[in-house]
From TrEMBL, chains A, B:
Organism: Halalkalibacter alkaliphilus
InterPro entries per UniProt: BluB, Nitroreductase, Nitroreductase-like, Nitroreductase/BluB
Entry-linked SUPFAM superfamilies: FMN-dependent nitroreductase-like
Record key words, sorted: Flavoprotein, FMN, Oxidoreductase
EC number: 1.13.11.79
Every Nitroreductase domain range: 14-182
Name of the top EC class for this enzyme: oxidoreductase
Gene3D superfamilies assigned to the protein according to its UniProt record, in alphabetical order: NADH Oxidase (3.40.109.10)
Keyword Transferase attached: no
PANTHER family hit by this protein: IODOTYROSINE DEIODINASE 1, NADPH NITROREDUCTASE
An example Gene Ontology molecular-function term: 5,6-dimethylbenzimidazole synthase activity
This protein's name: 5,6-dimethylbenzimidazole synthase
Lineage top rank: taxon: Bacteria
Keyword Oxidoreductase: yes
Length: 218, 218
């Protein structure tokens, strides 16, 4: 069903995808935006509930308010590193979001009420609705990569601030703010790896056989 | 960076990927298994925490116990449809897992303690560790698809049963049981769509502009 070339293409995009925080203001073609959203919409979802919505933010005024919410959270979090001075200054020097610069921010939400009271599978594990939404985000991210676009997942905010700014009802979960645009810098390695914040772990020790803790080597 | 063919290949796999519940016993080549795990390991993760482990279940005895845990949950859930007789019999006729038939089940777990006490981003939104794990699962699913393999995400179980069976520590989250193998039946549409359990939603009404509820047409 898939050729050797198609297989290589998938692995190429999976390995090349990066989380980007620096954007050019160049507008994004409508076709690319549609491809991103349609890729997200074809993610798997528990009980086929498709719990996602996509709020497309292009208004500069709205972006300024979201950037304020993220910056406020960044400054609050920096306080938790106050006992490790080097780590705190490292943290404060990381660029953690590009909401104001990127031409488009998408707020991806999850509606836990979609599909009614007894969604297949979600009845056992309620957070599968959020996990489905994360699968949609991953599809969108891979799509952005092949479209030549950079994407950054911003996870610094209080959900209630984002609900207030985007007028999102209280039961809806604003799972992610995704900043999207073209970029000059698409690094080979994750920014947090290059900046020595964290290393990529070796795969083998993460694999167990038939039970937790029993190492398997592949 | 990506050719038109590579772009098409990604969208093909995103659109063709299905959730499968019927498997052949044929063993899976080691190389394909490695490709699946490495794809998962290259998912994005909050603060680059890489919170996942992969428990590879091939023991028939362990699979029997997991299948028992899933079946017990399925029977318990059926009771919640007792007031809708048609829905209940529809539910009971759906094949919801293929743990015993598939040659391999992978339990993907999430360790919320990995990366220490103050993981970048997870400090604001704690469940981003599970969302990262879901991104890893989606990568693995797309990889399975290009490898010609079928994958089914089983979400019918009590987490404590799976912890007991696989000797998983209490703080580790068994996010998913993934059944993997070759299949005779790789349908064009989701099983829940074909069996009239749920329809695929139209994309346009899910898209809003600058705030919740404001329709955007693309």
């Amino acid at each position: 069903m898939f050729t050797e070339e198609e297989k290589k293409a998938l692995y190429k995009v999976i390995y090349k995808r990066r989380d980007i925080r620096t954007f050019q203001p160049t507008p994004i073609p409508e076709e690319s935006i549609y491809n991103l959203l349609n890729a997200a919409h074809h993610a798997p979802s528990v009980g086929f509930m498709q719990p996602w919505n996509f709020i497309m933010i292009t208004s500069q005024a709205v972006k300024e308010r979201l950037a304020w919410a993220a910056d406020k959270e960044r400054r609050a979090l920096a306080i938790h590193y106050e006992e490790q001075e080097a780590k705190q200054s490292h943290f404060l020097n990381l660029k953690i979001e590009g909401i104001k610069e990127s031409p488009l921010t998408i707020c991806v939400t999850c509606d836990p009420t979609r599909g009614g009271s007894h969604v297949l599978g979600r009845n056992s594990i309620p957070e599968t609705d959020q996990l489905s939404t994360a699968c949609a985000i991953q599809n969108m991210w891979l799509a952005a990569c092949v479209e030549g676009l950079a994407l950054g997942w911003v996870s610094f905010y209080k959900k209630q601030d984002v609900r207030d700014i985007l007028e999102i009802p209280p039961h809806i979960d604003p799972v992610a703010l995704l900043t999207i645009g073209y970029t000059d810098e698409y690094p080979d390695k994750p920014i947090l790896e290059t900046s020595k914040w964290e290393d990529r772990k070796k795969l083998n020790p993460l694999i167990y056989k038939n039970k937790w803790g029993e190492n398997e080597s592949l």
